[in-house]
Specification:
Number of strands: 10
Shape: globular
Largest sheet: 6 strands, parallel
Number of helices: 12
Helix content: 40-55%
Number of domains: 2
Oligomer: single chain
Radius of gyration: 18 Å
Strand order of the largest sheet: 4-3-1-2-9-10
Length: 280
């Protein structure tokens, strides 16, 4: 059996991608993971698609220094804006979070409407609608931007917080009236308030966590390529951020479900520079 002990590289605009890391480590405990959170330039969700694409190229370039066997774009906004370009430019496989979530939504919908909640940039990109229609042409897809969810989660507000409940009721009332079969959590922050979202959309709608589906996709891809790690002990997690490592440790552990120990701050000048290698 082939073995590849190189790391899995993961990047996000900030902290939310740690939900993807959590799902990866639950399924692949022997893998080393190197994570980059671009906390100096967060949030990506309100920036132009052109800016997000440029940031994603730079984030990927930084991760290539660690010789990853795969790069996971754990940011929905970056996946929506930049994945096709990264797939063309990078020499390693790239996995985003949009396609896995769309695949599971299409599988569960049985032709009934699908809801997608995400940041403004992800909704504006129309990436989820296009990915779902590629799998299930003609199915109705309702998208809803819920930008204030991110700040509420990072403030430490949980699914039972009255402010979260009020936001969910405000944002999701139009979606509830449409009675979708499935609602995709199109932002990696949203699973932390999943119970509040579920109450707001109603019991007839099944939630799809794109982070969980992405981790499943990475497992399948690495197994298919014979690139799973094999070690006598669990793999490690090394985190890099572009600003405020202490805040990342404090908030990120809620996303990861365990303490985050190894966090290094790198300034934008240290990771913005040369071009990404091209070809595959």
């Amino acid at each position: 059996m082939a073995i590849d002990n190189r790391c899995i590289g993961v990047f996000d605009s900030g902290i939310g991608g740690m939900t993807v890391v959590r799902a990866l480590r639950d399924r692949l405990p022997q893998e080393d993971v190197v994570y980059f959170g671009d906390t100096a330039r967060v949030p990506y969700g309100i920036k132009s698609l052109q800016a997000v694409t440029a940031f994603a190229r730079q984030d990927s370039e930084f991760l290539l220094r660690f010789d990853p066997k795969i790069i996971v774009v754990a940011c929905n906004t970056a996946s929506a804006a930049a994945l096709p370009e990264l797939e063309q430019r990078l020499e390693v496989p790239v996995c985003g979070v949009v396609k896995p979530g769309a695949l599971e939504a299409a599988r569960l919908s049985n032709g009934r409407p699908i809801g997608v909640i995400a940041t403004e940039a992800t909704v504006n990109s129309d990436a989820y609608r296009r990915a779902i229609h590629a799998l299930m042409p003609g199915v109705v897809v309702h998208q809803r931007a819920c930008p204030l969810f991110v700040g509420a989660v990072e403030e430490g507000r949980g699914p039972d917080d009255p402010i979260v409940a009020a936001l969910a009721a405000e944002y999701l009332a139009p979606l509830r009236r449409l009675n979708p079969a499935v609602v995709v959590l199109g932002c990696t922050h949203y699973p932390l308030i999943g119970a509040a979202i579920a109450r707001a959309v109603g019991p007839e709608s099944v939630l799809v966590d794109s982070a969980e589906q992405t981790a499943e996709g990475v497992v399948r891809l690495l197994a298919h390529r014979g690139a799973l790690a094999q070690r006598p002990s669990p793999g490690g997690l090394t985190c890099y951020v572009s600003d405020n490592p202490q805040r990342f440790r404090e908030i990120g552990q809620r996303f990861l479900g365990r303490p985050i120990v190894d966090v290094t701050c790198v300034s934008p000048e240290e990771f913005v520079g040369s071009e990404i290698p091209t070809g595959r």
